[in-house]
Amino acid sequence: MRLTERTDSLCTKNFRDKNKNLWKYIPVKQAADKKITPQDIAGDAGCGAKKKPVGTLTGEEGGKEKKLDVLPFRAKLGYSQKEAGYIPCEDEEGALRYVRVIRRSIAKILIPILILLVLIGGGTWWYMSRQGMPELDKSAIAYQMPDGMKNEDPSQILMPGFSTITMDEGGTTVHAALANPEGNPCYFKYFISLSDTGEQIYESGWIEPGMAVTEWDISEELPAGEYPIYILVQTGSLENYEEGMNQGAANATLVVR
Prior knowledge:
- Strands 1, 2, 3, 4, 5, 6, 7 and 8 form an 8-stranded mixed sheet that branches. A 5-stranded mixed sheet has the order 10-16-15-12-13, with no helix packed on it.
- Strand 7 and strand 8 form a beta hairpin.
- The N and C termini lie far apart (102 Å).
- Helix content is 10%, strand content 42%.
- It is mostly beta strands.
């Protein structure tokens, strides 16, 4: 199939082929009134498909003949391709035809890249935001200190007091608040040991300010009696829990009854 380039006042865009020849074409929006159908299209150009040409489009540029391979018409374009416009031409019988110009869609190329960048950025933000975040104790609940006591001075750490903790014999569950008072500038982590032997019988996870573990299990059943215990409170900055602050410690009595 041999096609000859025709001029049209609506040809306001240029398509440069691989041989650096310029071909004027009608942009898609301006071509809407012409109601071009697939039957009017002789083939495609610029789509980059490695298919055998179905014809040749000829024309003149600067007094020299130019040629363009016309590829088969593609009813369905690739994801990153779009219709740019139409080169008017006539076939060997003088009928008006068009060579469709296919270009890459920058938007369709950029969208997946932008989505990927957003995902990477979001993942990086999430990862960075997790830095300095401890493994919080899942059993901790919102807790208000007696009489609504809370820390009013963020430069200080308010430690709860302990004297006697009671529990029932024949089990390991203790009902007592291991709290981190509201307003503290740090996380708390509790370690409880038997003072006589130094054996650790409980370790909490990290507890946020305004939270407390109110039900916890010691590591073994204890016979009825009174047991001196040592309560150590480890602290970690809210900015980065690995940065320890002042620790707290208290001696108390665990009463099993």
